[in-house]
Amino acid sequence: MRMVQSFNQDWLFAPERLAHDAPDQRFKVVSLPHTNRLFTHHSVDNTAYQFASTYRKLFVLGAGMLDGRRAFIDFDGAMLVTTVWLNGQYIGTHRGGFTPFSFELTGYLTPGENVLTVYVDATESPNVPPYGGLVDYLTFGGLYRDVHLRLVEPCHIVDVFPKPVDVLTAPGLDCQIKLSQPPTDAHLTLTLTDAGGVVVARHQHAVSDEQADLSLRGLGDITLWSLDNPALYRLSVELLQGGVVSDFMEVRFGFRHAEFCPDGNFYLNGQPLNLFGLNRHQTYPFIGAAAPKHLQQLDADILKHELGCNIVRTSHYAQSTYFLDRCDEIGLLVFEELAGWQHIGDESWQKLVMDDLRAMIERDRHRPSVILWGVRVNESPDDEGFYGETNQLARTLDPTRQTGGVRNFIQSQFLEDVFTLNDFPEGIQQPLVRPHLITEFGGHLFPTKTWDHEERRVEHALHHARKHSLQRAHPDVAGAIGWCAFDYHTHKEFGSGDRICYHGVMDIYRLPKMAAYFYRSQKPPTEEVVLHAATNWTMGDRSGGGNNPLTIFSNCEAVEVFIGDEFQGRFLPDAEQYPALAHPPFTVRWPEPYNPWGTPFRDLTVRGYIGGSVAAEQRIDASHTPDRLRVSLSTDRLKPDGADLARLAVAVVDCYGNVLPYHMHPVRFSLEGDGCLVGANPLVLLGGQGACYVKSGRRAGVITVRAEVDGLASVLVRLTVGG
Ligand code: GAL
Fold first, then answer.
1. Which atom of ligand 1 has the smallest separation from the CA of 315?
2. Which residue has its alpha carbon closest to ligand 1 atom 5?
3. Is residue 289 part of a domain?
4. Does the structure show a pLDDT above 90 at 595?
5. Claim to verify: residue 228 and residue 369 sit in the same structural domain
6. CA 108 – CA 451 distance, rounded (Å)
7. What distance in angstroms lies between residue 131's CA and the mean position of ligand 1's atoms?
8. Could you tell me the distance, in angstroms and rounded to a whole number, from the CA of residue 136 to the centre of ligand 1?
9. pLDDT one-digit tens code per residue, 358-392
10. Contact, 653 vs 627, CB < 8 A?
11. Candidate from 134, 135, 136, 314 with most ligand 1 atoms within 8 A of CB, to mutate
12. Considering the chain, what is the average pLDDT of its residues?
């Protein structure tokens, strides 16, 4: 039988290339995911992660563990070129940082102790995608995803690809199953279970070839996977040889029909769905790309639940399976794209792109959330030969999904199924072909920091509002995916001088800018009533003073505005400026001449109404007095694996809970328990907010963290590790 063992713990790590027999003392013990280096928030120098590291793992193969089986080491991803040695013998090299790869260890293993040595070279090699040209993101380095040891019988299951068919009429399932070799005297048992574990169908088939194409029909009532009810099914496959179960694999998938149609719309399960989303980079402050499961899941939750997106683009590479698992679970659509950025390299470089594309599709083609494969290097020139091949490969590996390929010029040759365009100019470029999807806008046209002047932060949000409104009014365009969800680290040729692109609607810690409230306000009020006045409510922050006009992001039907006790008026959504949005922002204008300078200044109160009743209220304190330090944990439970991380977010707020954006004071943290802080300590708040990460040790127990800022009461939070 298959045996899979996590290889995430007890690695020895050295930030240099050491010989196989270098003494253990030259290493330190680490757990995965691991970054080859920790960084500061700002001014990350990409040359500082460009070196080869040595990871060593000692492991014992118990007597009989191999017993005629084959052994593989599986890497979910390592950055950027990985060379594997076992017991002093060279095993192989993998080039590329975003997709999984495996090496066979059988024949090199010895009974008893084995020494696995992995060199991970994070040098930005021009021969390996995404490099070769300039790249507007950093890749960082290290064994930044999970590693497993896998023992299997010589004849084992290599891949299971469930392909739902006739989903809207008489749901059935085609199953493509690949074995490592032609089996003898073998059967495959397929069991389909629903989310509640109820068996929907079970079939057994005799097999004699390496690939089996089997079908399950007459499945009866199937719950479709949708955004509101992301129903997941499991397909379990058992391989029996001589009547004995010799291998097992299980894949989670969903029954849904997803199609971009020639009328320009995207349809999910036969219903048109306007695609509303953001791009995501997989990098974080301090830890580079080495984010564990919890942080990956958190990003998906933020995109769906906090920002109200229905789609994310994994710009510009295949992202963590933990992130994608969560997209499957919560109903967040994904446009997944191959690795690269503007540059196309030579033949061997292109071969790596093909390998990356194959690995990405084979890894993720069972996922109901993934609706489109990005088969071009983002914003690269047309190349009929190369992109003819990428399209063909995608269609062969996965006939169930359409292809897109992101370009930045409208005359680009249309080789894909969906014309996916980065549409940066004001307005919408008229589709020349259909279906047409906007895959980026905003970004470098309006970089915005959490501590920028209020007018800029509001305009940043309105830029996103305008583009989404324009897109929704355009019947030929299936949707728009803004650039981007979160601020990200970049090379010196891009960004604001501190090597950060402040293009996110959230900051690099995933904390909101004003633009985040625009996104959130597009949620249906049945999910969450949103009311956010886009202002610090000051007399003197804006040019000329005052707050005219005042923008309010809300999904309420009407708002009432008060200054102190004085009623200012009742306002309706600004459908004139944002006609096509589900919930246009409110524009509150005071009559001209407007000169509040030097007049008494009082609190702002905004009330939101739905169905004639007050559904939400926001107050902003006119004195801007810091009231308290708000501390929130993304989770209070960690795994005792030496690598789990919780985000600990802090903000200085007024007495009504509004963040005070210019309160940029240092916050000091102190931690007790088996764990550590990852981040800056003290942490200087930016835009009144910031975060660090709490990392677990290897022992179960309790970690407490105290956060303090001058002049306010300190706050203590508690995390449970294990248990
Ligand atoms: C696009 C590119 C993105 C990002 C963005 C910034 O051209 O595809 O990766 O660089 O610009 O606005």
1. 9
2. 443
3. no
4. no
5. no
6. 56
7. 15
8. 7
9. 999 999 999 999 999 999 999 999 999 999 999 99
10. yes
11. 136
12. 97
Q: Is the pLDDT of residue 493 over 90?
A: yes
Pocket test for ligand 1, best of 313, 408, 424, 440 (most atoms within 8 A of CB): 440
Which pLDDT value is given to residue 723?
79
Backbone angles phi and psi of 326, in degrees to 5: -65, -35
Closest ligand 1 atom, residue 379 Cα? 8
- pLDDT tens digits, residue range 91-115? 999 999 999 999 999 999 998 999 9
Query: At 273, phi and psi to the nearest 5?
Result: -135, 120
d(CA 551, CA 152): 61
pLDDT band, residue 289 (cuts 50/70/90): very high
Which residue in 124, 153, 416, 440 is the catalytic one? Answer: 440
pLDDT at 64: 82
Is 426 one of the catalytic residues?
no
Q: Where does a domain end: 152, 183, 218?
A: 152
Structural domain for 613, as ranges: 531-620
Q: Which of 153, 379, 454, 459 is catalytic?
A: 379
Measured in Å, residue 443 CA sits from the centre of ligand 1 at 7
Domain count, the chain: 5
Q: How many A from CA of 228 to the centre of ligand 1?
A: 31
Tell which atom from ligand 1 comes closest to the C-alpha of 378: 8
CB 261 within 8 A of CB 473: no
pLDDT at 511 over 80: yes
Mean pLDDT value of segment 334-342: 98
For residue 84, tell me if it sits in a domain.
Answer: yes
Q: Extract the tokens encoding 22.
A: 């270098």
- Length of the chain measured in residues: 723
Query: Has residue 461 been placed in a domain?
Result: yes
Main-chain phi, psi angles of 106, to 5 degrees = -50, 140
Identify the domain boundary among 476, 493, 519. Answer: 519
Amino acid at site 609: Y
Q: How confident is the model at residue 478 (pLDDT cuts 50, 70, 90)?
A: very high
| Residue 336 a catalytic site member | no
What sign results for the dihedral spanned by CA atoms 286, 290, 295, 301?
Answer: positive
How far from chain centre, in Å, is Cα 329? 14
pLDDT tens, position by position, 657-688: 999 999 989 999 999 999 999 999 999 999 99
d(CA 122, CA 31): 18
Distance of CA 315 from the midpoint of ligand 1 (Å): 9
Lining residues, ligand 1, CB within 6 Å: 136, 315-316, 378-379, 408, 422, 440, 443-444, 483, 503
The pLDDT, as a whole number, for residue 17 is: 98
pTM for the structure as a whole:
0.98
